[in-house]
Amino acid sequence: MAEDEKSGEPVKDKNELEIMKELVDELYNFRDCYFETHGVEEAGRKQSDVAKEIEKTLKKLEEKEDHFKHKAEFLLQKGRCLNVAPDFSAAAEECLARAVKLEPGLVDGWNTLGEQYWKKGDLIGAKNCFTGALQQSKNKVSLRNLSMVLRQLPAADSTAHAKQVMESVDMARQAVQLDVTDGTSWYILGNANVSLFFSCGQNPQLSQQALSAYAQSEKVDRAASCYPELHFNRSTLFQYEEMFSSALGGYSRAAELDPGWEEPLEREKQLLEYLRKVTELLQNKGKVKARRLRTMLSNLSTSALGPCSSPEFRSPTGRVGSLEPRTLSSLTQGHNAGVAALGKVVFSLASEGRMAFTFGMVDSEETCIVVMVYNTADSWGVLIGDTVVIPEPQVKRNSITHKDESFDFRSIRVDSPLLLIVNGKKQNVQSQLAASVSYKPLSE
Q1: pLDDT in the model for residue 64
Q2: Within 10 Å of residue 89's Cβ, how many Cβ atoms?
């Protein structure tokens, strides 16, 4: 009988440790699914509510500490509990380091310790933990965390960085393949594709893959649609793709979900200010006086086409042959093959916080259009009075509504200053610089 009681002790311990794990799992669920039980108007309370739940869970764990403090599983759950907070915790690091020392095969221990190193800013330490966990067992958490770390690690040069980003996409893809119903893995794949898009030639297919991954994240996991970072990062891509209504809506939603995070509100404000400025300058043709405008336009002639008038001219699409000058009003929406837009610069806006160097151009009919030039070096720009030729222009009609404001204007998108002819000359290679964007990795 006494023997039975002894053998029952480990079973009791195991049950208690399972109960502790369930407690900590509930804590993660409370944080990650907060908006399933709370309205968005309570977003400002989320951080303090989560902190209170951490305290409650920690108290319950500490009641059992004397009995379990040398058990790896207990140390893991205590470390996981402390890891729910967004910032680094030395106590969490200590618990998790002890847990994996006691039980080196503890995959959750290595993953959570890696997240603590990440929060501390020790990216190499984080990478080693996630790699070590993968050596124990292939799992989605290590793969997607490694995907994030690889994108953040400094690289020797742009080639090395591109290689890291490609490896990061591969890790994120593998995480998704292990569980296609995990919204966090889809979200991290979206971020990896955004990085790949900006570091490897801005292939539109990569942009589409990122947007699809974000959409899938929301589809398979209701909690994902409440990640402020998802809305913010997707809006960064929307803005670059000139999907301005979607970008504004996303920044606004990110700010609602995390009122303490200032950047989404700042981006929304900046973009609205940019659109107001662009529409105002368009309407009054950059405030250039009528007489000066007539003088500027009087010397606008087809000789300004420069290399575009040559039968050997190779357009951005690979078409060979001279381009026919067209008025802005005659350009159709989308790609205008075989033609060139020609005009005088009447205003310009630097690209700070706007992703594109923007200028206004007026043609011989005094029609004004906005031109957005991407991937420009800081030193590049055009001046009022410059003559600009845009080969095979890509024209877009922008109809934007956000909150109580509306904007409606036509624009031309130019993906590189190297595609422009300014004052009869092609632009030199130093005028181009690949765009970079900042996005926020998910705090896990």
Answers
A1: 81
A2: 19
